[in-house]
Amino acid sequence: EWLAAYYLVNCLYQSNESDNHQQVCSVLINQQVAPKYAVMIPFMCGILYNNIISKRDPLGSGLLYFWKLLHSSPPQIVPIHQVMLHMHCLDACKADTDSPFLSSKLQTCHKILVRSFKSWIDFDNAYRLNDVVKLHIFNFQYLVRHRDIHTCVIDQVKMIQARVDTLDKYVLISHRLDVLEYLCISTETTNIVVQCCKQGFRQSKKDVFQLYADLLCRISMKLNERQLDDVIQLFMDGLADNDANVHKTCAEALAKIALNLNERQLNKAFDFLINAFESGKFSVCEDCAHTLTTIALPLKTSQLDNTFECLMNRFYVYFYNARATPLLMKLKEQQLTRIFECSINGVSDKTKGRNARRECVRSIGLLAMKWNEKQLNNAFNSLMMILNDAHEESWLRMASMEPLATIAIHLDEKKFDSVFQWLLNRLKDKTCHHSYIQALGILSKKWNKKQLDIIFQFVLSGFQNITGYECEISSHVLKEMAMKLNETQIDILFTCFIDTLKGKNKFIQQRCMQSIEYLSKKLNKRHLDDAFPYLASGTTNEDARVRALCTKALSAVSTKLNEQQLEKAAKIFLNGLKDEDSHVRVLCARSLETISAELKGSLLEEAFDALMNVCKSLIDTPNDTEEDIMCTKALQRISAKLSDQQLYVLMKNFLERAKKRFTWCVGYALSEMPEEMWRRLSIFMLNESGARLKVIKKRRISR
């Protein structure tokens, strides 16, 4: 971009009649907010500024002409993007307003731009800082340090600090603190923000102090060592608070800022927590145990050992928590052995509570890769005892399946096969729990050909409705193993599906429709040609569940359909937007989003009109509905293909909905709209406005 900018600057100095000069002028006037010039134009400004310093252009005529062209651009409907470009250009000139080598006209121009930026960061009468300003403010190297801007920022921060005690509305406080994050532009402003947070944290209501803690975490990487010391002390004091919410908030906050602490600060926090645990200053909970672990991980091995001993003696259940994984991975073999023994004993101890035993089982599977062969065998035997104990509670057997399958993968063929056979026997049970099927999916990583053939035959038997086999279980098993099947097995299974769809057993037909979705990535052209008519006709079935299953299957295979099939599928999805069942409508909207890249011509227009009708019909709903979200996302995906007129209608609808009820889906769609879309929209509206003015003038003349 710098080389391109250098070339454009040279073109700018050429004769006004030259093509190159006129093209550069066109870019600066008409395309300045285009994303592709976002970096190049500020580079041009920086080069022109340096030409003054190096006396290549001592009068600054080039830079003055550059600013004249930028300000000749037509007004923008959304001016903030143009303003931010001008600010980046000013930043490239080091926000210089006083240097004697600048002409008085340039100094005046730069001072006007500074005042313009001040208006965007002055929120005395507003609750929030503009979202676009937030994206840019940290990228300004000189502008935010300009004395006028810096003074303005300090005044804004002090204004909030003075009002901390008077703010009583949660939303208002949240917006004010959100602003503070973006005003930490210097040590001075950051120091005021920290003091403001400390003041609010100590004096605010219990439902608000979380906001102050979150802000301190977000700005922690900008704090200097002294400021971080103050924040650490604030959170350590909060850990001893009698209020459980304050304790939890401070523990979580201390863990979040740990990555930004130096070794001295980590040691200070570590010693505080260890001493507090040992002295009983406050009771150990999961959150403060995690904080201790997070702080200890970057420290010396001896401190990691102290952490292990402390938690083993005072809160050993933490090791069964998923958040303990980083610590477990750094432990020594003898330490892991102690945890293993606790876990094995915990599994078999029926006096423990349900959650404790479940966590013991889970930890055994989680650390399978760390156990030695003897430990793996012991764990295997312990879990198999649970499965074979008829008096054991069913929830524990279900919880044991995934860890057992994970361990079996690391053991010999005999033990692996014993787990495989145990699961296979349970698959014929109508009450087969989904955890068994998931465990089978884990075992699939190590299946041999014989075991794959056995499972395949089981799945096929279920779809063939053979006595003793359940087709619903076969469908769930197929979902886990679909990618393991070879071409011959896919052909056999698919032939079974087609034969079933020709039959009369509605329940099995539904399972076949569902399973086509699972096999979508493995189907070839012949399979799609055979299945398409059945899926298409199924979308008009009187049963809403059948319509939904067929819609999902069509959506899953849509990327493999030929042009004619894709057109029919698109029309099915469009018709489905009018379905009486809301779930079917949601699926059709999601399917249109899936095939959006393939929509064109009249089909694109139909899709746009249908989706817009849905959005208009839902404009009065109080909250985001799934249907609204899917239609909005589909419209967002096709927006790049729309005509200017359609884009205008779309954006008008989005803005009307945002004004009436600002929901997540509309806000996200507007924020993700690229600059080029806004440019097209601006030009279209200006042209429309010009056309209307001409009509009005003609009417006046005719009168």
TrEMBL record:
HEAT repeats lie at residues 531-568. InterPro entries: ARM-like (IPR011989), ARM-type_fold (IPR016024), HEAT_type_2 (IPR021133). Signal peptide: none annotated. This is Condensin complex subunit 1 C-terminal domain-containing protein. It comes from Reticulomyxa filosa.
